[in-house]
Specification:
Layout lengths: L1 H29 L7 E5 L6 E5 L11 E6 L10 H10 L3 E5 L4 H6 L41 H12 L10 E7 L1 H12 L9 E7 L29 H10 L2 E6 L12 H4 L5 H12 L3 H6 E6 L6 H5 L2 H8 L3
Parallel strand pairs: 3-4, 3-5, 5-6, 6-7, 7-8
Antiparallel strand pairs: 1-2, 2-4
């Protein structure tokens, strides 16, 4: 009798478990997956260039929004946690991040030199001494020994994202950068070609840069608008200002971003302010004096955030700005 009862109970438990198992599997399959990305080579460039993305561009995507994320000064050779944080904050959005390696970064990660494009060899490790804008990826400089600008790379990304057969539903692209990536984006707004297919809106977000482009400054390109690199050598001052006054860009900075880590301390940089937050406030004050420019710029202070891209990318204001498709 006891054996029969035990067997019946055992069969009942097994039966219930068998019913619940598919349900559990369904629940787990519907749970949000942690974002991932791999590194792929960008075709059609003068020298080998790579990008990080959840899948290759050639696979395409059916979403309405895509983001080009520019890595910071410590990037260039790997998938960064900042990209994964951005993907997680935005949800199902195709995020592609071009890689701009420097010799110092290659050495840091014990990567042997190969034929890939390298930038910024003229820039010393001492942050008080500037290099030349002509090989600086943060402002459109050329890779060593090439006539390939870092801006040519994003122009190619824009061209591939604009292919209707690969991205048929795309309505908006946002170019996003934080820290050195913010410098890149801020200068691209001024001189980048910014070409996308009809029906796609291109917007920008340049956050927490170490320095800003100052159109009224005669300092060299990394700080002012003189001594520009090859990519924008023929861009007139008038065209530069036209771009700034016609392209929508979010400029943001954390209210606690007052540290000196990786801060540009060269003399022209220090003229912009003693830290990133002060430089941001000074830039904001300058832009607001130009009515047409101010109409296209969105300023946002990240409350209680220091120099942390992952926190900025998770900020609701930033997420709404990026995902807003009109």
């Amino acid at each position: 009798m006891f054996t029969l009862y035990y067997t019946t109970m055992k069969m009942s438990v097994i039966s219930r478990f068998a019913i619940l198992l598919p349900l559990l599997a369904l629940i787990l399959s519907c749970a949000p997956k942690e974002p991932t990305a791999e590194i792929y080579q960008l075709e059609g460039m003068e020298a080998p260039v790579y990008y990080a993305a959840p899948k290759p561009l050639s696979n395409g995507d059916r979403g309405e929004l895509a983001v080009i994320m520019i890595q910071g000064w410590g990037g260039g050779v790997q998938v960064l946690k900042e990209q994964l944080a951005l993907q997680k904050a935005l949800g199902r959005v195709y995020v592609v991040s071009p890689l701009y390696p420097r010799t110092q970064i290659m050495e840091k990660y014990n990567i042997a030199k190969d034929d890939r494009a390298i930038w910024n060899d003229s820039w010393p490790r001492d942050l008080t001494i500037p290099g030349t804008p002509h090989d600086d990826w943060r402002g459109g400089g050329d890779a060593n020994g090439t006539t390939m600008s870092s801006y040519d790379v994003v122009d190619e990304l824009l061209a591939q994202l604009s292919q209707k057969r690969l991205f048929p539903n795309l309505k908006k692209i946002v170019m996003v950068g934080f820290s050195a990536g913010g410098q890149f984006v801020g200068r691209y707004v001024a001189v980048g070609k910014g070409l996308v297919r009809e029906g796609i809106t291109l917007e920008y977000a340049a956050m927490s840069p170490s320095t800003f482009i100052l159109p009224n400054s005669t300092d060299t390109w990394h700080y002012g608008i003189s001594n520009r690199p090859r990519y924008c050598l023929e861009t007139s001052d008038e065209k530069l200002m036209e771009n700034l006054r016609s392209r929508r860009c979010l400029h943001g900075c954390g209210s606690l971003d007052i540290g000196e880590k990786s801060l540009d301390k060269t003399p022209p940089a220090m003229k912009q302010g003693e830290n990133r937050f002060v430089r941001y406030l000074n830039f904001k004050a300058m832009v607001e004096k130009d009515e047409k420019w101010a109409e296209k710029v969105v300023f946002h202070t990240f409350d209680s955030i220091a120099h942390k891209a992952t926190k900025a990318y998770a900020d609701p204001f930033f997420v709404e700005y990026v995902k807003d498709i009109k």
